[in-house]
Design brief:
Length: 262
């Protein structure tokens, strides 16, 4: 009764209730029986023996893990991707990884005017696309992914990276748009922030991905170990495993950090 009283006094508080992680977890498990989240592919199964170099990488908040960005490059090379689309630009680290090996890259973000209309901090707004600097392989697009006209790009993308608004309704909408963008039989979709950290599922994002994915495609949904990513991977050339917590790190990876070139 107290909760009902709070909602009656402040109807907006209902949104917090509906987007509660516990409720998303309960609903997803009840609908799917996947109590540990998506089956998992091993990150190191994508990694070549010589490893991979990432550039640029900011080591700042709000960005991706090195493994997340590495997946973009590794998947692009694995399928010889020619066309890449991402939803959510931020500093431009992700699209820069794609542009290193994909000739046609598109990144969609809200316009400066729209970000200003939402009263976002000017310094935060100016940071969007920081690393891109007129890269010849990158085309910057402006718009809200919920209303943007994707028809020009429909069915043409080899790789799509979804990293926009992470609320349930937005992720579900972006997921539906992502499936319109790819070549269904061979295109790959990568979602960022499927996990809040590599071993912990972000249930509102997972539920949104699941509901936004066509039913016949759900068998190709996977998490990726040692990352924050989920993936639509229809190729079927790698074994999957059940997510286990806590995960055994094995021998661990080797990481090299170099100073940026002047």
């Amino acid at each position: 009764m107290r909760a009902i009283g709070i909602v009656l006094k402040n109807p907006a508080s209902l949104n917090a209730l509906l987007d509660d992680e516990t409720e998303h977890e309960r609903a997803f498990k009840a609908a799917t029986g996947l109590n540990d989240g998506l089956p998992q592919l091993r990150f190191d199964d994508f990694l070549p023996a010589e490893g991979i170099t990432l550039e640029p990488f900011a080591f700042l908040s709000g960005g991706s893990m090195p493994t997340d960005l590495a997946l973009i490059r590794l998947l692009a090379k694995r399928i010889d991707a020619q066309n890449y689309f991402e939803i959510g630009t931020w500093r431009g680290e992700s699209v820069m990884q794609a542009a290193a090996c994909i000739p046609n890259c598109y990144t969609l973000n809200l316009s400066v005017h729209e970000m200003q209309r939402r009263n976002w901090d000017a310094a935060y707004i100016n940071m969007h696309g920081h690393f891109i600097q007129n890269h010849p392989n990158i085309k910057r697009l402006e718009g809200d992914s919920r209303t943007f006209d994707f028809s020009t790009f429909a069915g043409k993308m080899d790789l799509v990276f979804v990293d926009g608004d992470h609320h349930f309704d937005s992720v579900r909408s972006d997921t539906r748009k992502a499936f319109e963008l790819i070549q269904r039989d061979k295109g790959i979709i990568l979602w960022h922030d499927y996990a809040s950290e590599p071993e912990n599922v972000r249930w509102n994002v997972l539920r949104a991905i699941w509901e936004g994915t066509p039913e016949e495609c759900r068998k190709h949904l996977f998490a990726v170990s040692n990352s924050l990513c989920a993936m639509y991977y229809p190729i079927g050339d790698l074994p999957s495993e059940k997510r286990v917590y806590p995960a055994n790190p094995g021998k661990g990876f080797r990481v090299r950090i170099e100073k940026p070139q002047s």
